[in-house]
Amino acid sequence: MSTAGIKEAVKEKYGQAALRVTNGRSSSCCGAAPAGGPSCDPITSNLYDSSQASQIPEEAMLASFGCGNPTALASLNAGEVVLDLGSGGGIDVLLSARRVGRTGKAYGLDMTDEMLALANENKRKAGAENVEFLKGEIENIPLPDNSVDVIISNCVINLSADKDRVLREAFRVLKPGGRFAVSDVVTRGPIPDEIREKALLWVGCIAGALDEADYKAKLKSAGFEQIEVEPTRIYRIEDAREFLSSSGVNVEEIASQVDEKFMSAFIRAVKPAGVASRTCCGPTCCD
Fold it and tell me: What are the pLDDT digits (tens) for 7-58?
């Protein structure tokens, strides 16, 4: 798939998901309820506990399609500025906003109009005054250099066709000493082309996943230090059988090639304290 094709496929999927929530038809499995229906793939199920679910509007939970719970793992302090890349219905933004308090701020960035509308409605229902949702792409973050303390994201960076640019942009907007703390799907070892080439598996968080070593290398290339990849869920083929089959994959043919090769992980990194970003003004230094 081309970069433009991937972007449109992702936008269409998540726009439709937002409309299903708005119309009361969503059945996301990201909450505390056990997975069990056909829409409950092993990546998005059982991510938030009941205490977290009680803090936010139900619609925010229903519109969550992440692979982890970055707000439970990221260190957030009162007064900090947090940015969620690919914020969807706003669940992680709203949870972060409670942790940084009235003196802090939580931004959410999303490219899908339907998700932004849903997120702003969830913001209204939650009465969150320190939250702002921005329209834009994670490859071009609409915030100034050195303006964010913490970047979080929940299974969104893997959806981008230009992950190097996403990580460079994350580095740019972070303050010196700022933290990168995201949940994402990563792989270990080679993955069959049959997986990589399917659009449904790309928007389903599988086909675009980076090898964990490649993820670390790209973070280092972007300028980050103190890079860690901590697996939070390792998927067996039985976990993903229904999900892969429904996407047109012959599971029996590739079972040995994908078993325990995919995992959700919490990825941490730090922008060096002595490094401030500078917006590129020349014709060649931004790409």
Answer: 776 677 767 776 676 666 554 433 333 333 434 455 555 555 555 555 655 6
Distance in angstroms (rounded) separating the CA atoms of residues 120 and 117: 5
Contact between 150 and 143 (Cβ < 8 Å): no
Query: Rounded to two decimals, what is the model's pTM?
Result: 0.80
* Distance from C-alpha of 148 to C-alpha of 34, rounded to nearest angstrom: 35
Closest among 226, 231, 224 to 209, alpha carbons compared:
231
Measured CA to CA in angstroms, residue 127 lies from 83, 98, 160 at distances of 19, 11, 31
Q: φ, ψ for residue 106 (rounded to 5)?
A: -125, 120
Q: How far is 12 from 238, CA to CA, in rounded Å?
A: 28
Q: How far apart are CA 254 and CA 194, in angstroms?
A: 9
Tokens of 23: 């119309």
Would you call 256 exposed, middle or buried from its count of C-beta atoms within 10 A (0-12, 13-18, 19+)? exposed
Asked if 123 and 131 touch (Cβ cutoff 8 Å), the reply is yes
Q: 25 is written with which tokens?
A: 């038809």
What is the spatial distance between Cα 259 and Cα 257, in angstroms, rounded to a whole number?
6
